[in-house]
Amino acid sequence: MTKKLTFRETIFVASMLFGMFFGAGNLIFPVSMGQMAGSHIWQAAAGFLITGVGLPLLGVAALGISRETGLLGLGSRVGRGYGMFFTCALYLTIGPFFAIPRCASVSYTVGMEGILAGEGSFLFQAAFSFTFFAAVLFFALRPGQIMTWIGKVLNPLFLAFLAVLVVRALTAPMGGVREAIPSGDYVESAFSTGLLEGYNTMDALAGLAFGIVVIDVIRGLGVTEPEEVAKSTVKAGIFSSVLMAVIYLLVSVMGTQSTGQLEVSSNGGEALARIADSYFGGGGAFILAVIVTVACLKTAVGLITSCGETFAEMFPGGPSYHVWAVVFCVGSFLVANLGLDAIIAYSLPVLMFLYPLAIVLVLLTLTGRWFGNDPVVLRWALGLTGVAALFDGLGALPEGTRALLHLDGLTASALKLLPLSGQGFGWVCPAFLGTAIGLAVHAYAAGGRAGKREKTGGER
C-alpha cells in the first residue's frame, strides 16, 4: 500500500518549510515597503507577493513535479555544465556569500545593537556572530532532526512572539493607511517596485534550494513513491505560502500605519525597532530580539543544511556533509562581520542576475510537457535571459563600484536597447524571444524526425 502523509505530518512539513523560508529579511523588507509605499501599499504588496510568495511556491512545485531530487538535477536538464554552474551560484548566494551572513547581521543590527552599541561594538558583533553560528552548526550537524527543531520548536516560538507585536500594532494603529504618503519609487511605480522588493527575500531561490531538504524529510516519513513525494511537496509548499502571504500583508500594513507617528526609517530593521519601542518601551527590544534572532536562526539552519547536502551530493568524492556544514558556517561568520549594509548592497546585483534565470527555469519546468522538456528550448530561453540579466545585475551595482569598473556607459546602452530595463526587468523580452526561438527549433526538429519516419516507413 502506498504511504501518504497524514494531515498532521503535512502541517509539520509545511511548518518546517515556512520556518526555513521566513527569516528576518522577510520582516525587514515588507515593513520598510509598508512605510515607503504609504497609501499605495496594496499595489506594492501585490507585486511583493508575486516574487516573495508566488515564485517560491512555483519553485517548490517545479521540484516536486519534475521528480528530480534537487536543483542539480533540474538545472542539468539544460546541460551538466549549466546545472553545476547554476547550482553552485545559487547555493553560494543564498548560502555563505549573502543570505546566511545576513541572518547573523540582521539579528545583531535589529535585535542586539541598540543594547550593545558603543565602544567596542565590532567586538560585540563578532562575539554575537560566533555564538549565532555555533548554535546554527549545532542544529545543522543533526539534519535528521531538522523537522523537529524548525517545524515543531523554533517556528512556533517565532510565530508566538511575532503575534504579540503584530496584534498589538494592528489593534492600536498609529495612523491610517489612506492618509500615509508614498515616497521614493512607490509614488509612480508601486507595483513594479514591490516586485523588485520581493527579490530581496531571496525566497524564489530558496524555494529551489530547500527542495532537497523537503524531499528528504518526506521520504524519511515513509513516502517513497515519486508521485506521492511530488504531491506532498506541493501541498507543503501551498500551506507554507499561504502563511507567508498572510504575515507579509500584516507586517506591511503595520509598517504603513506606523508612519502616522514615526518618520520613514532608513531600513526595515530600524523601522521594526522603533515600532516595537513605541508599543512596548524597553520590553520591545527584548520581544524584537527574540523574533529576529529565532527567525534568522531557523533560516540559517535550513540554508546550511541545504547547502551542505547539495555540495556533498555534487562532489561525492569530496568532503562529507558535516565538513561542508562546518566550512559554510565559518565562511558565513567571516562575511557576516562585514556589516548588513555591505551585504545588502552587493547581494542585489547578484539577485538581479540569478532571479531571472531561476524564474525562467521554473516556468519552463512547469510547462515542459508541452515541448517534451527539450533541452534546446531551455538553452535558448536561458541563454538570452542570462545575457540580459547580466546587464540588469551590472546596473544594480553600487554607484562607486560601477564608476570604478567604468560600467556606466555599458549599462546606459543596455538601458536604451532593452525594454523594461529602467524598471529592472530588461530580461523579460529576451526571455520570451529565446523561448520562441527554442520552440521554433524544437518544432522544426520534431517535424524533420516525423518526416524521416514517414519516409523510412514508405520505403519499407
What's the arrangement of secondary structure elements?
Layout lengths: L6 H15 L3 H13 L3 H26 L4 H5 L4 H18 L1 H18 L4 H20 L5 H26 L18 H10 L3 H7 L1 H10 L5 H33 L9 H13 L1 H33 L6 H16 L3 H27 L8 H21 L3 H6 L3 H10 L10 H32 L1
Helix pairs in contact: 1-8, 1-12, 2-3, 2-9, 2-12, 2-13, 3-9, 3-10, 3-12, 3-16, 5-14, 5-16, 6-7, 6-13, 6-14, 6-15, 6-16, 7-14, 7-15, 8-14, 11-12, 13-14, 14-15, 16-17, 17-19, 17-20
Structure description:
The protein is mainly alpha-helical and 460 residues long. The protein folds into two domains: 7-351, Amino acid/polyamine transporter I (Up-down Bundle), CATH 1.20.1740.10; 367-460, no CATH class. The protein contains 20 helices and no strands. Helix 1 (7-21) crosses helix 8, helix 1 (7-21) crosses helix 12 (226-258) and helix 5 packs antiparallel against helix 14. The longest helix has 33 residues, at 226-258. The model has no long low-confidence stretch (mean pLDDT 87).
Brief rundown of the structure:
With 460 residues, this protein is mainly α.
